[in-house]
Amino acid sequence: MKLCFMLEGGRGSAVPGHVISQACDLLTRRGFAVEMLLAEEIVVRLDQLTVAHDLYLLKSDTELSLSMAGVLHAQGARLLNPYPACLAVRDKIVASWHLCAAGIPAPRTWITNDLSLLRPFAETQPLIIKPYRGFHGAGIRIVRSRDELAALPTPESPALVQEYIEGSGHDVKVYVIGEEVFATRKPFSPDSFTRPGQPSAVSDRVRDIALRCGPLFGLGLYGLDVIESPRGPVVVDVNYFPGYKGIPEAPRLLADYIESYARERFALSAAISPARMEASQMKMSVPSAV
Question: What confidence score (pLDDT) does residue 197 get?
Answer without folding.
Answer: 85
